[in-house]
Amino acid sequence: MSYKTFTYSMKEGVKNIWRNRMYSLASIGTITASLFLFGILFFIVANFQSVIKSAESSVGITVFFEEGIRQARIDEIGKELAQREEVKSIEFVSGEETWQKYKEEYLSEELVESFGDDNPLADSDSYTVYLHDVESQTSLVEFAQNLEGVRKVNYSESIAKAFSNINSIIAMVSVAIIVILVSVSIFLINSSVTMGVAARKEEISIMKLLGATDKFISGPFVIEGLLVGIIGSVIPLSILYLVYDNLLTYITSKYTSVFNIFSFVDISDIFAFLGPIILIIGIGIGFLGSFITVRRQIRQVEVS
Amino acid sequence: MSRFYHLDKVSETKEKPIIRFEGVGKTYQKGIAALNDINLTINKGEFVFIVGTSGSGKSTLIKLLLKEIEPTEGRIYVEGKDLSRLRSRQVAKYRRNLGVVFQNFRLLPDRNVYENVAFAQRVINTPTSIIRRRVPAMLSSMGLTEKYGSYPNELSGGEQQRVALARALVNNPLILLADEPTGNLDPSNSIEIMSLLNEINKRGTTVIVVTHNKEIVDMMQKRVITLHKGKLVSDEQKGGYSNEL
């Protein structure tokens, strides 16, 4: 597209939006609403996932050693485990510590006394391994079980499964909602462009008669779609920013105690990802919606 | 260079066919034959009337020339090029060879005279410097110099048709196709438009006028091709309106 055609399309595209303002408003409104909903959904999912992530990483695997193992081998096992990619952190728990803890939490004083200085968990030194992602549990368990000197690995399969189920449900729901919103937006842009072409049928017919190419004729409509997409994504982005910012301040100030346990995802982290995504979706919807429709519509306009 | 060389050139170009219909037929989906076995040659620089009542196939002929529809039989050549071989991308460029005016003028009501004519150049990406030179020249040759800023609804029918002519000619088409150009005009305006068309023809443009205006055809004494019920029934040099119709 030459510079001249571009400026022409730009000028006419802006005029189209104005001439066609009811439909343009409807299109901008739908894209705005869709992307706003998408943003809210994203807030929920992002924060929910951050909660899950922190929960996931608190789920530990316990690795016990064979009887009579040397301390050097225990250290080696610790190193080998710590080197694994899926491992977030690793903690050595001695049998002594475990026994102390157990006594304090579960046993009555009488019972404790009956044990005297005996430590039934003397051979229960262990590593507690925390993972980045609970879904990688199986591979790590397998690895640990095959290490020399490892007697037993304790883990909970059901917790891992539950987390991965929640994750896939979230992913599915998000995809479904996005698909619906994008389709509705594209449908509305289609209608908007169809109306726009219909309203300017005579002008387009004359353009065709005068030998204007379809590309030239469609230029302003595509620009119109692009602009609608840009406006329709900048508006929800700004609103979403304000909403998230205020919500964060409000909730953290009002319910400090409740939300101590987990922290909201930082606004800059959210928007570093959400900003580009919303812009791409909005502009993409605007461009594709108008591009697909306009050529077909223009072809249908009669010349004489 | 002798004067004769120039004359030779002119006679040579006049003999060259610019439009050729070879056994052209068009049957619409409902099975009605709008045109049937049309064989026709129009040479460069000719002035031709195509006459016929409604339903004679005139409109179909125009649509075929504009490549808005395809013939169901035969071939159409314009400037030696087979229209059926034009790819859809090339159609727009092909149409730049044709200047077209209509009975209802088809001016854009929201643009003034200057913009209506300049529009024809803008839509084919003509540089602005050329538009600024060409449009005023065209308007002045159509006697519209004083109407630059007027809007179509402020003009008489004759003036509107002259704007339409200016728009059709501003890109220097090879062929001017006028579809009932006097259909909405009173006799004096009709005569004025016809003399403008004659003028344009003398400057070298091939002019095809589709009409059923008997007076005009009789007055001009040009080649007359008569269509009736989709068939070419007569083709006379310096003819009048066929009495059969």
Descriptive keywords:
heterodimer; A: 304 residues; alpha+beta; Alpha-Beta Plaits; 2 domains; 4 strands; B: 245 residues; alpha/beta; Rossmann fold; six-stranded mixed β-sheet; 10 strands; 36% helix; globular; disordered N terminus
Estimated share of beta-strand residues of chain A: 5-15%
Radius of gyration of chain B over alpha carbons?
18 Å
Q: Please state roughly what percent of the residues of chain B sit in beta strands, choosing from under 5%, 5-15%, 15-25%, 25-35%, 35-45% or over 45%.
A: 25-35%
- The stretches of 5 or more residues of chain B where confidence is low (pLDDT under 50) are 1-13
The radius of gyration over CA of chain A amounts to: 31 Å
How much helix, percentage-wise, in residues of chain A? over 70%
Series of H and E elements of chain B = HEEEHEEHEHHHEHEHEE
Low-confidence stretches of chain A: none
CATH topology of chain B: Rossmann fold
Shape of chain B: globular
Task: State the helical fraction of chain B.
Answer: 25-40%
**Which structural category do the helix and sheet elements of chain B fall into?**
alpha/beta
Number of domains of chain A: 2
CATH architecture of chain B: 3-Layer(aba) Sandwich
Secondary structure tally, helices of chain A: 10
Helix and strand topology:
The complex is a heterodimer of chains A (304) and B (245).
Chain A: H1 3-19, H2 21-56, E1 60-65, H3 71-83, E2 87-93, H4 95-106, H5 109-115, E3 126-131, H6 137-145, E4 150-154, H7 157-199, H8 201-209, H9 214-254, H10 267-300
Antiparallel strand pairs in A: 1-3, 1-4, 2-3
Helix pairs in contact in A: 1-2, 1-9, 2-7, 2-9, 2-10, 7-10, 9-10
Chain B: H1 3-15, E1 17-27, E2 33-43, E3 47-51, H2 58-65, E4 73-78, E5 81-82, H3 88-95, E6 98-102, H4 113-122, H5 128-141, H6 157-169, E7 175-179, H7 187-202, E8 206-211, H8 214-220, E9 223-228, E10 231-236
Helix pairs in contact in B: 4-5, 4-6, 5-6, 6-7
